[in-house]
Amino acid sequence: MDSPQIVVFGSLNMDLMVRVPRAPRGGETLRGLGFLANPGGKGANQAVACARQGARVAMVGCVGQDGFGEALRNALAADGIGITHVRAVAQSTGVAVVMVDDEGENRITLVPGANESLKADDAAFGRAVVGQYLLLQCEVPMPEVVVAARAMRAKQATVVLNPAPVCQLPAELWPLVDIIVANEIEAAELSGLPVGDAPSAAMAASSIRRRGPSTVIVTLGAQGVVVADGAGCRHFAALAVRTVDTTAAGDTFIGAMCAARAAGQSTDAAVMRGIQAATLCVTRAGAQASIPRFHELEHVPPVDPPSPLVCLPQ
To answer: 79, 229, 251, 304: which one is catalytic?
Structure first.
């Protein structure tokens, strides 16, 4: 494999997905409609999304010495992702139990397992891990996320952070991040401002941008995507589609967006590509099983050009 364009430092989980008509109430036993075990984890999902959109990708993460761990490594390799830095450790592989209702909404319980053993200060990471982009999330220990960002920033990589699951970011991480991609809940947490629509997302995104990142992207599901950067704030409308399952939609958006940026596309073109990929993703069930490949987006309608929004002064 040639040197990767994108390095993903993050989590690998086996997703155990149960389809239900609705979420059960406390103490209630509800008959499920289906079950699927599917490779997942925000880090691995984003790595797969990048790779399926044509990027060269390397994964850095940890799995257990068990059947789930072997399956996760094999799944990444099948997508052409470098797995040299995916270590097998004594802890069990991370597991996510995903409940998906008839509206396509998901509820997730995560057991991190081996993800808690991930380290970025190994000599091998500092010497051998190279890439134009570093993609980070919050499903692995935050001190290691900071170390990884510092090491890759020193190599002139562009650092992209998805602050999910929602978390408070340490002060030392902010100046190391170039691009933040957050959903409405994460954007509200990071900015301290309410986020419910595109104008409020623009306020939150421009507030977050004051902390250091040059670009802040807020995903709003059916309400589209808001971008705040040096060119101002703008809103991209979502594409209308019947939602089957929202699992991995955010990861798909981020991966497709990063792959487009790594291929030299502008921020706006990359966001449009991310919207197309996420649109196709939500029409399918599962995590990595739902992530589209490059050629499939030929059949997705184009995204309209963005409309301007008011930003907070920088």
So the answer is: 251
